[in-house]
Amino acid sequence: xxxxxxxxxxxxxxxxxxxxxxxxxxxxxxxxxxxxxxxxxxxxxxxxxxxxxxxxxxxxxxxxxxxxxxxxxxxxxxxxxxxxxxxxxxxxxxxxxxxxxxxxxxxxxxxxxxxxxxxxxxxxxxxxxxxxxxxxxxxxxxxxxxxxxxxxxxxxxxxxxxxxxxxxxxxxxxxxxxxxxxxxxxxxxxxxxxxxxxxxxxxxxxxxxxxxxxxxxxxxxxxxxxxxxxxxxxxxxxxxxxxxxxxxxxxxxxxxxxxxxxxxxxxxxxxxxxxxxxxxxxxxxxxxxxxxxxxxxxxxxxxxxxxxxxxxxxxxxxxxxxxxxxxxxxxxxxxx
Amino acid sequence: xxxxxxxxxxxxxxxxxxxxxxxxxxxxxxxxxxxxxxxxxxxxxxxxxxxxxxxxxxxxxxxxxxxxxxxxxxxxxxxxxxxxxxxxxxxxxxxxxxxxxxxxxxxxxxxxxxxxxxxxxxxxxxxxxxxxxxxxxxxxxxxxxxxxxxxxxxxxxxxxxxxxxxxxxxxxxxxxxxxxxxxxxxxxxxxxxxxxxxxxxxxxxxxxxxxxxxxxxxxxxxxxxxxxxxxxxxxxxxxxxxxxxxxxxxxxxxxxxxxxxxxxxxxxxxxxxxxxxxxxxxxxxxxxxxxxxxxxxxxxxxxxxxxxxxxxxxxxx
Amino acid sequence: xxxxxxxxxxxxxxxxxxxxxxxxxxxxxxxxxxxxxxxxxxxxxxxxxxxxxxxxxxxxxxxxxxxxxxxxxxxxxxxxxxxxxxxxxxxxxxxxxxxxxxxxxxxxxxxxxxxxxxxxxxxxxxxxxxxxxxxxxxxxxxxxxxxxxxxxxxxxxxxxxxxxxxxxxxxxxxxxxxxxxxxxxxxxxxxxxxxxxxxxxxxxxxxxxxxxxxxxxxxxxxxxxxxxxxxxxxxxxxxxxxxxxxxxxxxxxxxxxxxxxxxxxxxxxxxxxxxxxxxxxxxxxxxxxxxxxxxxxxxxxxxxxxxxxxxxxx
Lengths: 336, 317, 314
Fold this sequence. Notes:
Largest interface: A-B, 43 and 45 residues
Number of domains of chain C: 1
Mean pLDDT of chain A: 86
CATH class of chain C: Mainly Alpha
Structural class of chain C: mainly alpha
Distance between the termini of chain C: 40 Å
Mean pLDDT of chain C: 83
Structural class of chain A: alpha/beta
Helix content of chain A: 25-40%
CATH topology of chain C: MetI-like fold
Largest sheet of chain A: 8 strands, mixed
Low-confidence stretches of chain C: none
Distance between the termini of chain A: 34 Å
Radius of gyration of chain A: 21 Å
Number of strands of chain C: 0
CATH architecture of chain C: Orthogonal Bundle
Oligomer: heterotrimer
Order of helices and strands of chain A: EEEHEEHEHHHHHEHEHEEHHHEEH
Strand order of the largest sheet of chain A: 6-7-8-3-9-10-12-11
Order of helices and strands of chain C: HHHHHHHHHHH
Low-confidence stretches of chain A: 328-336
């Protein structure tokens, strides 16, 4: 598959009063054309920092890129100047955020915000851009687009605002859309609408999507591949079917077991993961999941496991994959 | 047939806002039985949070009765209410906002004890605090720390410890897990379940995450724009929903199983959740309902028992 | 795999449960006020102000004893001496050493400033706190009264009171002066506190406290005021220079502190006569000290405001 984005060993840290906090500790993944890659993890795992990092929207300082490359269309984004990045943002790579209220300028009419991007990146005339804006609003199913294009953000409901955000993000036909928890703040019925919309647009525009979420249901619904992050690292990556049906990493397994599902019987217990994720101000010496893993072994404490391959597309980072784990520990290897 | 612990009758709560009257809760009635978990679900603006707070009289109701121990608590004097409050506690949604950032964990958890003067010596107070913290999985080492030093899940557990301080009978959990990470949600929910078994608690569990509500609740009520649309036992509601809104709601939830999720037939609702300010007469769901008829616009449907222990408010069933 | 790591079966045996700490809190405990202090220290301008205040305060008590002259000592042979090696700030028209008198004046200026700020604080917190926590009607009435009081021109009030008390023979009393200064000055503080209370009483922890059965007074004392102390502190720090300047103005027009006591403003007033006859130092020096004092408190107050702003946290 043609690669649109390739992240190689990305490392991002923050300088704080206490010292360096390593938010992203060497992650690598690819996004192919027209593919949806879900990045799953809980707060603090580094997924949002990664998303903002790709767009270089992190405040620098206190954030800084400690290492790695972000290859987009053959070029390393980390080597680009701010001006070059501005030509890419909103144009080739777009982002949709969780809270549409804070990402839209409350003092500017919706239409104007959409038109801005077109005039700047595609050098369109005002008139052509305004027509395109109405067309975009129609595309995202905003009713009465001719009228609403002249309204302000506060006149739209939450779901409508998110649609406008999507229109804004799509208007220049980007190759890659990064959606950071796009539906977390929305009601369930509205969420379903927005997800359908995204699928439709992806199909029409041959677009790739990086979907950041913590909702495993959305992952099952939308994604082709899944990247599971924990404490700044990728612990498992694979095709969606592989991740759900043949889970390899204890964290992913526990995560799946801790989500109540409509299709499971009511009496099935809900497993939870004790404790809290590690503080990345003192990154764990060995496997970052060690303190909370019920299958932890002595080696896990001091040594970071490498990514092992289970198939051409499925990898996980765990000492349980090691051949010796089966001999020394009868519990290892695929049990809940 | 056991007696209900609390009975809510025609509870209404209106707010005066710019633009008219916000009918947050517009006449809901239900019973909650001892040691059961009563789930209340709905989307934003449905009034479930307001309902929870009105039931414990944190908000003064616009109308209605709440019967507890044979008395309507809305008619009690301040002093009598003080006594009742020992039995009614709330756990709030936002673990970052519901704890005073300037108070230590010890003072936060002990506050109910302080307000009701429920101890004689400082040692007694300390011991009780440590006991409560242990109940929720925290320990003595956390006693002198401040809320901002804890994670969301830990803070929520402090909130639960505070709610347990006076040995209440009934706890309203107002979206207690919405602001938490997925794996932590399971932690807190399991904790609540364990505490229920251990201490014989009765819960009202308010949430918008239907999967979680199904898991923890015995009976579930579905609210929409201030009205109760459907109420049934948990398993029954999820396998045989009657109200069109409930059906749409259930079909909108993505299931974490790619094979099942891809093959599901979904009921899509048009439009957004409307505003509860100055609502029109008739069924509140009429604008988004796919089977709305004329009578739906004119008359508000009555909440009746359509099947055994299964209540619905709809003209078309 | 890692180079040099020998894989032994023991490494793959189950890890002991005690070895894993699930609820660890790594970072050291940051308490609120120490953190504010730390942030204040990073602000060099504010620290300059603080040091200046410290110096002025110490010298206010010690400075009068340094060069041996008494503040009331008159010496007709040494009138209007320009600053020199013996009289570092010169002498005034009665031959009194100005260096000693400056510190004597600073003592009273600081005293008045701090007292006025404290009284403003007390009345303001009580009034604003009660207004904020009361029902809308009570609050509205209280605020209207406060606004009416504040709209009376303060100078007028002060002059009236001074005149009335002078006629009664009490005009030189320090306490009458402070009373006059604070009569209308507490209102901005009350408005500030009320605003804080209105905002904080909607916070979820205040609501949680209410659900436990706490009274309004309890919530005000335990939850609201402690969290409002930040802005209140800033306001108190900025009230001091205002009061000092107000007193200086009054003394300058002859209404403030009376002889034998003196303040910086009174000294400036005394020195006014020296301006046309080439003794500018007599007014310049007190004026500089008034400015320095006000500057110090103002930058400290600004520093507090920045140190307390959660958004500016680094």
